[in-house]
Amino acid sequence: MKTIALDVGEKTIGLAVSDALGWTAQGLTTLRWTEGEYEDAFKQLEPYMKEHEVSKLVIGLPKNMNGTIGPRGEASQVFAEKSEAYFNVPSVLWDERLTTMAAERVLIDADVSRSKRKKVIDKMAAVMILQSYLDANSN
After folding, report:
1. What is the mean pLDDT of residues 22-39?
2. Which residues pair with residue 3 across a beta bridge?
3. In which element (H, E) is residue 110 found?
4. How far is CA 8 from CA 40, 112, 136, 139, in A?
5. What Rg, from alpha-carbon coordinates, does the chain have?
């Protein structure tokens, strides 16, 4: 069973999946959605959940730098609640502070053009969220 990580934004959701042993994260795709239209998002996510036999969701929790939860964090909490109910799998909210900036830095260092970075940044952030989670929870 694998774990999928989601970097949930207002317009996009970056996806990454673990290997079967839970050691490495690999980027999958970026889904487009309209915030609040959960059913649509879950229908797009469903094929990935089935294909990878997902047993857990890790959802990025954007905290403020002082550790408090703002509106984006609250939106991630709602997404986690609704996704647990829809997919009947547990979810974990994982601190994602600075993951998008780190993903951007990796892509810039790899000399990826601005237009291409925009297309993959959310997927890359999901990879960083998942890898951080896997590293922290490895046996």
Report:
1. 95
2. 56
3. none
4. 14, 23, 21, 28
5. 14
Alpha carbons 112 and 68: distance in angstroms, whole number: 33
Band (pLDDT 50/70/90 cuts) for residue 32 is very high
3-class SS of residue 4: strand
Residue written as tokens 């009947």?
88
* pTM listed for this prediction: 0.88
Which parts of the chain are beta strand (E)?
2-8, 12-18, 25-32, 54-61, 91-95
CA-wise closest residue to 8 among 91, 84, 98, 72: 72
Angle at 80 between CA 1 and CA 101, to 5 degrees: 90
* Strand 25-32 with 2-8, pairing: unpaired
Is 8 a residue whose pLDDT tops 70? yes
| Assigned token pair, 93 | 């909210």
Burial class (CB in 10 A: 0-12, 13-18, 19+), 50: exposed
Domains within the chain, CATH numbers bracketed? 2-136 (3.30.420.140)
Written as six digits, the tokens of 51 are 């294909």
